[in-house]
Amino acid sequence: MHKAGFVNIVGNPNVGKSTLMNSLVGERISIITSKAQTTRHRIMGIVNTEDMQIVYSDTPGVLSPNYKLQESMLNFSRSALVDADILLYVTDVVEKPTKNQDFLNRVAEQTVPVLLLINKIDLLKDQKELERLVEEWHGLLPNAEIIPVSAQYKFNLDYLLKRIQELLPDSPPFFEKDSLTDKPARFFVTEIVREKILQIYDKEIPYAVEVAVEQFKEDDMHIHIMVVIYVERDSQKGIIIGKGGKALKKVGTLARKDIEAFFQKKVYLELYVKVEKDWRNKESKLKSFGYQFD
Q1: E strand map for 232-264
Q2: For the segment 79-129, what is each residue's pLDDT rounded down to a tens digit?
Q3: Which residue pairs, CB below 8 angstroms and at least 24 apart, start in 250-255?
């Protein structure tokens, strides 16, 4: 029999969901930064063997929405509860277990197997701290199997993968066997550019930015890409560009290197900055960026 299923990764911001996803898939599918709310979409990474297909989903960190963009991000997280065959609820050794109790209650109601992953255990001082956390989480999610891990250092991920494979239902594959993700090439270009913005700029700037690919022309040797960086205010546009265009040039240089590594081709990357006032609260604009609403 062939096994296949959706293994959906959920949890609060900054607990290491994207690092875990990339480690399990074995490819750099999700961008990773130290900033909260780095992941905005639901991103699938697909692992294939001859008799198995595991479809992992990385999701945005669970939060209380303050604007339309965050409403869509929460919808992506909630949708991962609906179609999961196995649910990976990721926490870490830092956050309070009762954070976002409403979402936790939804996880507790799940009938599919829930693997509760306590991430970043390399930060703990001793075994007693871990035992206390395990006991506390067992009280909150009594039906979950608790697995301590370190996604960054790949500790206990072999055991986690073994449990996923054991719990995976019998099913034909959902995607072609050579598929790595459900996202088109353009999506990864926007994510790489956005990752560089998250890394380079401080405060509100990264959260006021959206990235869209306007042109993607590819031949056997090269890719010519034109990208628009949207901001909400003229002052933000000036910060993104920087004095003499230096800041934008730095974004372009760093992004181009990663895009070339991703596609294994020479890349010509053009970046432009446009002001789209209050885009985070415009549902029509958000839908054009690929966000979803109920």
Answers
A1: none
A2: 999 999 999 999 999 999 888 899 999 999 999 999 999 999 999 999 999
A3: 250/196, 250/200, 251/193, 251/196, 251/197, 251/200, 254/196, 254/199, 254/200, 255/192, 255/193, 255/195, 255/196
The CA distance from 254 to 20, in Å, is: 24
Q: Kindly write down the DSSP assignment for every residue of 150-184, as one continuous string.
A: BTTTTBTHHHHHHHHHHHPPB---SS-TT--BSS-
Q: What is the pLDDT of residues 22-69, one digit of tens each?
A: 999 999 899 988 898 999 999 999 999 999 999 999 999 999 999 999
143, amino acid identity: N
Residue 148 has pLDDT above 90, yes or no: yes
- Give the separation between CA 44 and CA 52, rounded to whole angstroms: 16
Residue 117: phi, psi to the nearest 5? Answer: -105, 115
**Residue among 149, 127, 193 nearest 16 (CA):** 149
Angle between helices 234-241 and 246-263 (to 10 degrees): 70
Helix axes 185-200 and 246-263, enclosed angle (nearest 10): 140
